[in-house]
Amino acid sequence: MSRRTPPLVPRLRPHAESVFAEMSRLALEVGAVNLGQGFPDTDGPLQLKEVAIAAINDGRGNQYPPGTGILELRQAIAVHQDRFYGISLDPQTDVVVTTGASEAIAATLIALVDAGDEVVMFEPWFDIYAAAISIANGKRVGVPMSGPELRPDIDALRAAISPKTRMIILNSPHNPTGVIFTREELQAVATIAIENDILVLSDEAYEHLWFDEHEHIPISTLPSMFERTITVGSGGKSFSFTGWKVGWASGPRDLIAAVRAARQHLSFVSGGPFQYAMAYGLGLPDQYYRELRTDLALKRDLLCGGLEELGFGVIRPEGTYFATTDVRPLGYTDGMTFCRELPHKAGVVAIPHAVFCDDPEAGRPYVRWAFCKRTEVLREALDRLRAGLS
Ligand SMILES: *Cc1c(COP(=O)(O)O)cnc(C)c1O
User: Fold this and answer.
1) DSSP H helical segments within the chain, as ranges?
2) Hey, which of 103, 109, 126, 208 would you mutate to test ligand 1's pocket, going by the most ligand atoms within 8 Å of its Cβ?
């Protein structure tokens, strides 16, 4: 029998296999503690569940909600952006609700990147950017995060800009490194975007997950940046309901009109009752946001302290719920090999940075660990690592 050509179009073939699926399968097979995939193992606030349940029971959002999102949520997003960042938005024109931040990102790229346009992003990058750029028929251009602390390489960014550069994707707080861009770094990116008339997609899914003094700054608040920036938020990440898939994009009306145009032909609408819950969540008092950070910071310290004791080179995250380690002090040269052996050796799953990079050298020694897990789960993982790695 003759073999058929693979049916998947060539531009999507590099994105067909996900290491998350491979590692989660492995985790199940060997009963490993899964610190690979980044979702919390406890739910967000009870009140949000009650609002969603009440909406379902009252018949609010059970049929197609408005394509741009229910007005209550668009208003809550506008109020939230003003409350935390002093950004002023018109909920009628400057906001669109999406099926998670993922769809906001996909719709932005599909709407604003044309065939052959270049999209520059810092490497390692969140995997959906690469796939969505391919779907949009654009070309991705990686720029390294470099040095021992994996900071954004601004000179490399400047050098990567060409007449074909249409967009820069920024992600701060940054997955997988946990780096939060400083005001100076953001200003340097902004200057490059302005001088070259480039759009910025700012993925702020982890906007509320920052630690110590590393407060999150939206790049759209820098001078002359609002007009060229699409800002993306994630209800799943901010309220620990990743399964609800409610996200949003906001920005100037012409850019949001474009995102809305693409988005209506993707999922059209989504998550009606959950949108009411997210509107409620965005209005929670400061105490909610503070406790979310305090709780995560303790988990960060627990995991990072344990990994340091085990001899890893730990890059202590400034934000997100991921920690990055260098495996070289443990005698490994390659994070991929380390992660493939780890479930068998120690019964723990982590993710190699290599899967977030085009340049195989860049991510080679680094491994990402999720710490959005119950304290006893993190302790169990560390116990297993102590037993399995020594
Ligand atoms: C999780 C994540 C997203 C996607 O968020 P959803 O709301 O679940 O679609 C986007 N960007 C980054 C960096 C993420 O880690």
Assistant:
1) 19-30, 46-57, 71-85, 100-112, 127-135, 154-160, 183-195, 235-239, 253-263, 272-282, 286-309, 335-346, 375-389
2) 126
Nearest CA-CA partner of 314 in 385, 228, 253, 373: 385
Structure tokens at 73: 């949520």
Would you say the C-alpha torsion 242, 12, 357, 367 has a positive or negative sign? positive
| Per-residue pLDDT reduced to its tens digit, 122-149 | 999 999 999 999 999 999 999 999 999 9
Instruction: Please say whether the beta carbons of 68 and 96 come within 8 A.
Output: yes
Ligand 1 atom with minimal separation from the 99 CA: 9
205, 234 in Cβ contact below 8 A?
yes
Instruction: Report the candidate in 183, 257, 173, 171 with the shortest Cα–Cα distance to residue 223.
Output: 183
Is the Cβ atom of 126 under 6 angstroms away from ligand 1? Answer: yes
Which ligand 1 atom lies nearest to the CA of residue 236? 7
Question: Tokens in use for 341?
Answer: 């052996």
Cα 205 to ligand 1 centroid, rounded to whole Å: 6
Which of 155, 243, 142, 147 has its CA nearest to residue 191?
155
| pLDDT at residue 329 is higher than 80 | yes
Length of the chain: 390
pLDDT of residue 24: 83
Nearest-5° Cα angle at 98, 369 to 130:
50
pLDDT digits (tens, 9 = 90+) for 170-214: 999 999 999 999 999 999 999 999 999 999 999 999 999 999 999
pLDDT by residue (tens digit) across 261-298? 999 999 999 999 999 999 999 999 999 999 999 999 99
Q: Ligand 1: distance of its center to the CA of 108 in Å?
A: 14
pTM: 0.97
104 CA: nearest ligand 1 atom: 9
Residue 173, both tokens: 């707080």
